[in-house]
Amino acid sequence: xxxxxxxxxxxxxxLLAGCSEQPSTxxxxxxxxxPVTGQSALYRMYQVARSWAPDANVLxxxxxxxxxxxxxxxxxxxxxxxxxxxxxxxxxxxxxxVVEGExxxxxxxxxxxxxxxxxxxxxxxxxxxxxxxxxxAYKTALKEAADYDKxxxxxxxxxxxxxxxxxxxxxxxxxWGESAGTAGLSVLVDAxxxxxxxxxx
Length: 201
What we know:
The chain is an alpha+beta fold and about 200 residues long. About 25% of the residues lie in helices and about 30% in strands.
């Protein structure tokens, strides 16, 4: 009888120990950071730039490709834009990134130092002039660069945004390569109307 009671007590203790253990919960999967379009990044930087200068206008913008963010033509993991203020006679560069990056690249909008500006050859423009986004600009450019794209299917697509001397509206420069200086081909697309403007070799 005593052995039976001991065995019963041991079994009860094992049962209690099993009940007290918490079920293991699987670790939450964090979604990979997604690249964003140029217009989306520009508006986010502009919102912060206006707190620096209410009269902020866009001078230029370019895409920054990040190896840790999956590529998507028409988008980028990070962007850099320069805004000007006529009242302050100053310019300021901002970055927007979907992840923390090397150097001075931070997740979200990050301002750079304020610099003097007195109206260089590059002309600023109102953000309202940027009515066409980079994914749409890429599709327009692709129609003009179809043959080149077929020969270079894995080529990185980059973007610059600025006023061009020959055209009244700011233009997206859709670049087959890392930069305009090293690209084999780039196409200008009007950022206000979405119309094809020029192919540059």
